[in-house]
């Protein structure tokens, strides 16, 4: 059942990795996903399996013990995993953003210290920009770091950390006034700190509290938390890249990887919704025939499949652009925007095809229906993507009159 969403030009290694992941998803994730999700249970066995497959090191360079694969390979794996259960893709996503930021911006000591254990899945990453009063408007961050000898003292409250409880390394974005006097542009006075902590909830390190899991409508299983810093002391050598004031750019670079990831999740969830819809449409009969034989249902299936194809093509294009070393904010923004909107529409159509049964928790589509909306928000809302796309278009198509 994989006529849709083919990717041309993959290497033998990529094809093999993807077929292994697909097999794992079909055997180990899909059969248990809905039950675990309803119980909001952390999928420990699945995470152990991903660790065994080496997936936590997928994009980490081989010199640090990873597989050294491209963003495209990673995105295609995420698509497969989200097809099985979106929450599992959330477990690896923030890990990858942090590993990517370390690889691109970390000092040699930071890479040597973190990347080998991240590749093995022994250290798992979370990343933290959002605060209770802001998500889209990152420049309004109010958490602060103040230098005190060889350390910084961090205070403030962060919000919506995916893997906040289960991670042991959090990349935290805060304002830092050192060397950046009052009046410096907000994006030049932010710093990313690499904060190590014990996994779990409560006071996980002196001055650092993870209060508990946020109760969500969907995207369950993976923990999403707040993070409270109250006099948290972080050594100066845990400033990402060793220099303050670069945090905003480092995070935005990481978010571009995250946007391709969210697009890939949208593709995976939409594919699963299509699979469920096309199967159900051939089982259910009304007015003496399969509902798939009613033209209205066939049109729905046609629209769904077209959206699955279009989203996949845009996601692959955005990943390839980043892999080529070129700026990909336009492509990543477009892919994230289109794939998340299409995902919501495809899921809704599959839900409608299921009639009343789609409303029953016994049917997988009920879970997908609660998962799809998260993609409209995470890594920047549709409005934020459109702002990025619009600005870039005006740069590219500057009026020369
Ligand atoms: C399940 C989940 C997991 C998350 N995980 C993480 C994580 O791991 N790390 C992290 O840092 N964050 C995380 N987030 C936070 C997420 O990135 C933010 O929720 C998102 O960026 C939106 O921010 P907000 O919720 O503050 O909404 P707001 O920024 O308050 O926006 C509210 C509404 O106003 C619109 N809006 C805002 N500004 C404009 C504008 N200029 N023009 C037009 N419309 C505008 C928005 O599009 C939206 O519709 C997570 C969120 C969720 C729900």
UniProtKB/TrEMBL annotation:
<dbReference type="InterPro" id="IPR013786">
    <property type="entry name" value="AcylCoA_DH/ox_N"/>
</dbReference>
<keyword id="KW-0560">Oxidoreductase</keyword>
<protein>
    <submittedName>
        <fullName>Acyl-CoA dehydrogenase</fullName>
    </submittedName>
</protein>
<dbReference type="InterPro" id="IPR046373">
    <property type="entry name" value="Acyl-CoA_Oxase/DH_mid-dom_sf"/>
</dbReference>
<dbReference type="GO" id="GO:0003995">
    <property type="term" value="F:acyl-CoA dehydrogenase activity"/>
</dbReference>
<dbReference type="InterPro" id="IPR037069">
    <property type="entry name" value="AcylCoA_DH/ox_N_sf"/>
</dbReference>
<dbReference type="InterPro" id="IPR036250">
    <property type="entry name" value="AcylCo_DH-like_C"/>
</dbReference>
<comment type="similarity">
    <text>Belongs to the acyl-CoA dehydrogenase family.</text>
</comment>
<keyword id="KW-0285">Flavoprotein</keyword>
<keyword id="KW-0274">FAD</keyword>
<dbReference type="Pfam" id="PF02770">
    <property type="entry name" value="Acyl-CoA_dh_M"/>
</dbReference>
<dbReference type="Pfam" id="PF02771">
    <property type="entry name" value="Acyl-CoA_dh_N"/>
</dbReference>
<dbReference type="GO" id="GO:0050660">
    <property type="term" value="F:flavin adenine dinucleotide binding"/>
</dbReference>
<dbReference type="Pfam" id="PF00441">
    <property type="entry name" value="Acyl-CoA_dh_1"/>
</dbReference>
<dbReference type="InterPro" id="IPR006091">
    <property type="entry name" value="Acyl-CoA_Oxase/DH_mid-dom"/>
</dbReference>
<dbReference type="InterPro" id="IPR009075">
    <property type="entry name" value="AcylCo_DH/oxidase_C"/>
</dbReference>
<dbReference type="InterPro" id="IPR009100">
    <property type="entry name" value="AcylCoA_DH/oxidase_NM_dom_sf"/>
</dbReference>
């Amino acid at each position: 059942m994989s006529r849709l969403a083919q990717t041309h030009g993959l290497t033998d290694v990529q094809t093999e990795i993807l077929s292994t992941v697909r097999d794992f998803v079909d055997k180990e994730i899909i059969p248990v996903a809905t039950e675990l999700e309803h119980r909001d249970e952390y999928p420990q066995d699945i995470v152990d399996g991903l660790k065994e497959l080496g997936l936590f090191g997928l994009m980490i360079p081989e010199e640090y013990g990873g597989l050294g694969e491209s963003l495209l390979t990673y995105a295609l794996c995420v698509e497969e995993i989200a097809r099985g259960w979106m929450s599992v893709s959330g477990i690896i996503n923030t890990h990858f953003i942090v590993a990517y930021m370390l690889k691109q911006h970390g000092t040699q000591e930071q890479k040597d210290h973190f990347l080998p254990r991240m590749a093995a899945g022994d250290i798992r990453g979370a990343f933290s920009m959002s605060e209770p009063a802001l998500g889209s408007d990152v420049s309004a961050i109010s958490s602060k770091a103040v230098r005190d000898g060889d350390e910084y003292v961090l205070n403030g409250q962060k919000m919506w950390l995916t893997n906040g409880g289960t991670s042991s390394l959090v990349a935290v974005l805060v304002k830092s006034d050192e060397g950046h006097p009052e009046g410096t542009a907000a994006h030049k006075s932010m710093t990313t700190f690499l904060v190590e902590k014990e996994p779990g909830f409560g006071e996980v390190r002196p001055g650092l509290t993870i209060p508990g899991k946020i109760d969500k409508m969907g995207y369950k299983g993976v923990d999403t938390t707040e993070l409270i810093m109250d006099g948290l002391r972080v050594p100066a050598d845990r400033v990402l890249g060793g220099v303050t004031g670069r945090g905003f750019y480092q995070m935005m670079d990481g978010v571009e990887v995250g946007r391709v990831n969210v697009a890939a999740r949208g593709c995976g969830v939409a594919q699963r919704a299509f699979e469920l819809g096309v199967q159900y449409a051939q089982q259910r009969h009304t007015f003496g025939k399969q509902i798939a034989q009613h033209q209205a249902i066939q049109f729905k299936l046609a629209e769904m499949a077209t959206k699955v194809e279009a989203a996949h093509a845009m996601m692959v294009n955005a990943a390839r652009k980043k892999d080529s070393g070129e700026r990909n904010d336009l492509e990543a923004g477009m892919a994230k925007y289109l794939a998340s909107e299409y995902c919501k529409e495809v899921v809704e159509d599959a839900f409608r095809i299921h009639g009343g049964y789609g409303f029953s928790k016994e049917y997988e589509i009920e879970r997908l229906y609660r998962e799809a909306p998260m993609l409209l928000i995470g890594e920047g809302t549709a409005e934020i993507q459109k702002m990025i796309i619009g600005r870039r278009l005006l740069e590219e198509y500057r009026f020369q009159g």
